[in-house]
Amino acid sequence: MNSFEKLNKSYANYKNTLCIGLDPDYHKLPAGFPQTPSGLYDFLIEIINATQDLAVSYKINFAFYEVFGSKGIEVIEKIIPKISQDKFLIADVKRSDIGNSSKFYAAAVYDNLPFDAATLNPLMGMDSLEEFFNYSNKLNFVLALTSNPGAKDFLYNMNFYPTLFREIIRKFTENYSEENLGFVVGATKPEYAINARLLAPKYTFLIPGIGAQGGDLEQLRKANIMPALFNVSRDIIFPDNSGDYFEAVRNKALEYSQLLAI
Amino acid sequence: MNSFEKLNKSYANYKNTLCIGLDPDYHKLPAGFPQTPSGLYDFLIEIINATQDLAVSYKINFAFYEVFGSKGIEVIEKIIPKISQDKFLIADVKRSDIGNSSKFYAAAVYDNLPFDAATLNPLMGMDSLEEFFNYSNKLNFVLALTSNPGAKDFLYNMNFYPTLFREIIRKFTENYSEENLGFVVGATKPEYAINARLLAPKYTFLIPGIGAQGGDLEQLRKANIMPALFNVSRDIIFPDNSGDYFEAVRNKALEYSQLLAI
Question: Which of A63, A149, A151 sits opposite B104 (nearest CB)?
Answer without folding.
Answer: A63
